Amino acid sequence: MKIAYDPQIFCAQIYGGVSRYFCELASRLAQQPDMDISIAAPFYVNRYVKSIPSGVVKGFACPKKNGFKSLYPRLIHRLLSLLVGDFILRSQFPDVVHETYFSPFPIGPRRARRVLTIYDMIHEKFPGDFPETDNTSKYKALATRRADHVICISESTRRDVIEILGIPPEKTSVIYLGFELLKDHNHFEYEDSFQVDGSYLLFVGLRGGYKNFLRLLEAHATSPYLRANFKLVCFGGGPFNSLELERISELGLNTNQVIQLGGSDTQLSQLYSKATAFIYPSLYEGFGIPPLEAMSHDCPVICGHNSSIPEVVGDAGVYFESTNLDSIRETIERTVQSEPQRKILIEKGRERLTYFSWDRCANETRAVYENLL
């Protein structure tokens, strides 16, 4: 069985969840003797491909990604990657082409069966969070219509795909992502310069729109107990913007109480390990890796009961209503004040991690390929 992955994500993403997903799949399936796996990735910029077995990647690393500061060089690089990638795929005669993102046109031979993975429907459900020039929704719809099968990374995403894009349920399946530790937190060395004094609650990732950070900020600020006993630490997402700084000031807080940090996976691991709890107020997620990262570092999870989050977190988290300020505040207060409950969440988190395996993800994806042939 010859399976090929197109060049889209590998010429666009240096690091990221989507490219990591395809590299994990390709690495595992390439080790199976009856599988012929290839990634058509001319001029790739992605760093994960270095971990893929020799001979799988058809292409070479582009050394000048950091020089693509302006629009036209980026567009030329992408166009060349897609054109050469299309030629490579046509010359290989694969049985299945697994498209790695959403293209307005098919890449590779038309005779091959096509698989598409959809990660979320955020662009369709929260269009106001994206510029009008963003074509993701349009291209996703085109890619979905030409696909022979669509993999969704959660049941929640599958329901949204069926409802919004109108594709037949039998054309879809759910395959959960795998998970691996950011770093073995029992062995990394703490960086003194990255310590946060005192107890804190941890928020990770982007903060705008559906991520619901401002509501969490208000819940923290309006709780005398949380305000007096815990800082709110935000990792990633860039420095606070003017709107966030204004809101922090309006709530009577300062940047010693609400802290923004950025750094490496090692530093994030350190924050997870020392946090009293990880807070995940997002209104929508296609899957949601950060709660699993928190569980892997024995950090209790307190989160919203939305979209795919309950599928991922299961009984290893405490839930609040993400649009209800009182619910967020009271749930966090109740959980962080109960040491027995925190210990239960830590144990349940360790158990929950066993549900998410890259080997299982690869084997279930292989079954999708086999069923198309």
Describe this entry's structure for a reader.
The protein is of the alpha/beta class. It has two domains: 2-178 and 357-372, Rossmann fold (3-Layer(aba) Sandwich); 192-355, 3-Layer(aba) Sandwich (Rossmann fold). 40% of the residues lie in helices and 14% in strands. It has helices at 17-29, 71-92, 122-125, 136-146, 155-165, 213-221, 224-229, 242-250, 265-274, 290-296, 309-313, 325-336, 339-352, 358-372; strands spanning 2-5, 36-40, 57-58, 96-99, 113-118, 149-152, 172-174, 200-204, 231-235, 258-261, 277-280, 301-304, 317-320. Strands 3-2-1-4-5-6-7 form a seven-stranded parallel sheet, with helices on both faces. A six-stranded parallel sheet has the order 10-9-8-11-12-13, with helices on both faces. Strand 6 (149-152), helix 5 (155-165) and strand 7 form a beta-alpha-beta unit. Helix 1 (17-29) packs across helix 14 and helix 10 packs across helix 13. The protein starts with a strand and ends with a helix. Residues 183-187 have low confidence and may be disordered.
Low-confidence stretches: 183-187
What oligomeric state is this? single chain
What is the general shape?
A: elongated
Instruction: Please identify which CATH superfamily of the largest domain we are dealing with.
Output: Glycogen Phosphorylase B
Task: Count the E strands.
Answer: 13
Q: Order of helices and strands, N to C?
A: EHEEHEEHHEHEEHHEHEHEHEHEHHH
Q: Which architecture of the largest domain would the CATH scheme give at its second level?
A: 3-Layer(aba) Sandwich
As a whole number of angstroms, the C-alpha radius of gyration is 22 Å
